[in-house]
Design a protein that fits this description.
With 66 residues, this protein is of the alpha+beta class. It has two helices and two strands; from the N terminus they run H-E-H-E.
Length: 66
């Protein structure tokens, strides 16, 4: 998922349906074309804060989430 899609996911899906029991969890794979060296938790937190993301976002540097 691209960072440009986060506002729609936050507003159109998460905020609209969280009261009905929906849980959204974002998983950052630790690599993207804009950060080829990988992200760390602080970078992910800054991104989430800038995009006003309120659902949990985690890091999967080891590709352990499948």
């Amino acid at each position: 998922m691209c960072g440009q899609e986060f506002p729609g996911l936050e507003n159109d899906i998460y905020q609209a349906y969280k009261g009905k029991g929906l849980t959204v969890v974002g998983i950052n794979p630790g690599w993207s074309p804009t950060s080829p060296k990988g992200d760390d938790l602080m970078a992910i937190q800054r991104f989430a804060d800038q995009g006003h993301v309120t659902f949990p976002v985690g890091l999967d540097n080891g590709n352990s989430y499948q």
